[in-house]
């Protein structure tokens, strides 16, 4: 059964692609303006790694600019949320005051979207929609949005450094000035030829040892395809009121309760009644194959919600599928057909990531060559 005739594919393809494109991008884009290289004492790659791992940051605020061009504006528009960060240029304001107090504000011409964490309380606010959501985290929790796209160089660096193992060549690059701060450059180069990532470059504050800029280059490219960097940074601890959110008058507030690990219950409404579990959560079957730079994400979309016409063809998306469902189906149907001893399906091959949609209902994606996806599909 073709994955293109399964509506759950529309729910899982884009969020999954977003996850594997943490350091992904499409066409090359311009780099942030560079200044003359500062004269800094020599420092080895091993020393810079230690600097990153032992840095102590009490507080920080600043402006971050992120640039990316995945070449997938239709899909990004369908996914919403984090996927908005996958294309174009975006400006964010960030505040940090320890692991349980953070705030990120995405600014655009039409309004502002904030995520604010203070202890176990997490607020999201959309000024354009005039809506807010409050969520209470479990007592033991990590980041408020685990698996989300990185919005600061520190977020991106942490995820990239998780891939540092014998499969990674770690070297130093040129010194730089970022957001008015002198910085060293750490360069990560995957050794596995199946990775489409050529290099990841992390500019590290020479004094505070905080990542100030994160860049990723695709094979054969000499300019970053994805970059996120501070344009202004202040290491003083932000005022406590930055992490206090009081809904403005007229804002529609939704109250949610975070599920405990392993729980299948959905969010709860203000009146205490259970909410609806996210569609497709059970049939996604998300797993990983491989490690490090060549990790492949595999999701089984299932076939429980396949809709067909009396003639046996896939039904056209209806209102419940969202306004972009037809556009997504057209895009998926336009992908080239591929086949092999693993089966058959359709393939999207980008500069930094590949996505394979098999006819038996699987979606495979990674920062890898199509051949590596085929290998994973055989398992």
From TrEMBL:
- Write out the entry's keywords from A to Z: Membrane, Transmembrane, Transmembrane helix
Q: Transmembrane region positions? A: 12-34
Chain spans, region Disordered: 239-287
Comp. bias (Basic and acidic residues): 253-273
**One Pfam family here:** MucB_RseB
Which Gene3D superfamilies does the record cross-reference, listed alphabetically? Lipoprotein localisation LolA/LolB/LppX
UniProt xrefs under InterPro entries: LolA/LolB/LppX, MucB/RseB_N, Sporulation_related
Give the signal sequence positions.
Answer: none
List each copy of the MucB/RseB N-terminal domain by range.
90-237
Looking up PANTHER family in the UniProt record yields: SPORULATION PROTEIN YDCC (PTHR37507)
What is the protein's name according to its record? MucB/RseB N-terminal domain-containing protein
**Organism the protein comes from:** Micromonospora wenchangensis
For this protein's source organism, the top of the classification is:
Bacteria, Bacillati, Actinomycetota, Actinomycetes, Micromonosporales
């Amino acid at each position: 059964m073709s994955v293109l005739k399964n509506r759950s594919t529309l729910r899982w393809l884009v969020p999954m692609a977003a996850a594997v494109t943490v350091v992904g991008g499409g066409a090359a884009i311009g780099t942030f303006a560079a200044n003359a290289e500062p004269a800094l004492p020599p420092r080895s790659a091993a020393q810079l790694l230690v600097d990153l791992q032992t840095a102590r940051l009490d507080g920080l605020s600043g402006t971050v600019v992120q640039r990316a061009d995945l070449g997938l504006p239709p899909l990004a528009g369908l996914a919403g949320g984090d996927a908005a960060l996958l294309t174009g240029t975006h400006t964010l304001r960030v505040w940090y005051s320890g692991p349980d107090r953070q705030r990120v504000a995405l600014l655009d011409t039409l309004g502002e979207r904030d995520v604010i964490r203070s202890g176990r309380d997490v607020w999201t606010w959309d000024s354009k929609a005039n809506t807010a959501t409050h969520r209470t985290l479990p007592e033991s929790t990590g980041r408020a949005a685990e698996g989300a796209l990185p919005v600061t160089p520190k977020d991106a660096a942490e995820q990239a450094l998780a891939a540092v193992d014998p499969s990674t060549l770690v070297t130093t690059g040129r010194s730089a000035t970022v957001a008015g701060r002198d910085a060293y450059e750490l360069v990560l180069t995957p050794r596995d030829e199946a990775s489409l990532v050529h290099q990841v470059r992390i500019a590290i504050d020479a004094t505070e040892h905080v990542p100030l800029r994160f860049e990723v280059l695709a094979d054969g490219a000499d300019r970053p395809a994805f970059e996120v960097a501070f344009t202004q940074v202040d290491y003083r601890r932000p005022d406590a009121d930055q992490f206090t959110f009081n809904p403005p008058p007229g804002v529609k507030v939704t109250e949610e309760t975070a599920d405990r690990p392993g729980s299948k219950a959905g969010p709860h409404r203000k009146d205490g009644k259970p909410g609806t579990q996210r569609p497709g959560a059970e049939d996604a079957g998300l797993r990983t194959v491989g490690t490090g730079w060549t990790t492949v994400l595999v999701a089984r979309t299932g076939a429980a919600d396949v809709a067909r016409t009396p003639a046996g063809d896939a039904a056209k998306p209806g209102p419940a599928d969202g306004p972009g469902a037809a556009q997504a189906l057209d895009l998926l149907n336009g992908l080239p057909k591929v086949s092999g001893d693993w089966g058959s399906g359709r393939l999207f091959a980008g500069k930094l990531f590949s996505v394979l949609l098999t006819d038996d209902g699987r979606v495979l994606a990674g920062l890898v060559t199509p051949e590596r996806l085929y290998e994973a599909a055989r398992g």
